[in-house]
């Protein structure tokens, strides 16, 4: 199978596997849990980097994925649920799916926060037409990272490691879905 066919197959597998996963938790308890997890992730991020608080305050909105699970052996994927915020208040739920192909081995969990500088970027995310390609820049959140936030097309992405070990040199992209609260 050619490299492009492997990539298409990997992407199809990840997308099909995650298609059945709802964007919002089905139960009221599940919604409360994801909102609490997102709030805790935000608190950890702000404790890790005091310069991140003004980034959030000045943002048009932001999405917090408290735990994204990622794994792969040649073909890989990632999945996580999160909360979308506007003016510091939760307005809905979102999910992230990712398919990759390339040199990769392992598994990891991480927190991802997407900060929207503009209304256009925020609305694009909410519409379901939002995706990152392999060229997206991600900043590891550590002391001072917020002060150096670099926006591309009105979006900045921050991550914090949770657990695991992953070696990779892959090509893939992230796709997002949104469901109003």
Explain how this protein is built.
There is one protein chain. This protein is α+β, with helices and mostly antiparallel strands and 181 residues long. The N terminus is likely disordered. The chain has one domain. Strands 1, 2, 3, 4 and 5 form a five-stranded mixed beta sheet that branches. The protein is globular, with a radius of gyration of 16 Å. Helices cover 30% and strands 47% of the residues.
What structural keywords apply?
181 residues; alpha+beta; five-stranded mixed sheet; 30% helix; disordered N terminus
Element layout with pairings:
Blueprint: H1 3-19, H2 28-48, H3 52-58, E1 61-86, E2 89-116, H4 119-127, E3 131-132, E4 138-140, E5 155-180
Parallel strand pairs: 4-5
Antiparallel strand pairs: 1-2, 2-5, 3-5
Tally of discrete structural domains: 1
SSE ordering: HHHEEHEEE
Give the overall shape, derived from the CA principal axes.
globular
Task: Tell me how many strands there are.
Answer: 5
Report the helical percentage: 25-40%
Structural class: alpha+beta
What is the number of helical segments per DSSP (H or I, 4+ residues)? 4
Estimated share of beta-strand residues:
over 45%
Which spans have pLDDT < 50 for at least 5 consecutive residues? Answer: 3-19
What integer value in Å does the Rg equal? Answer: 16 Å
Mean pLDDT: 80
Give the N-terminus to C-terminus distance in angstroms: 43 Å
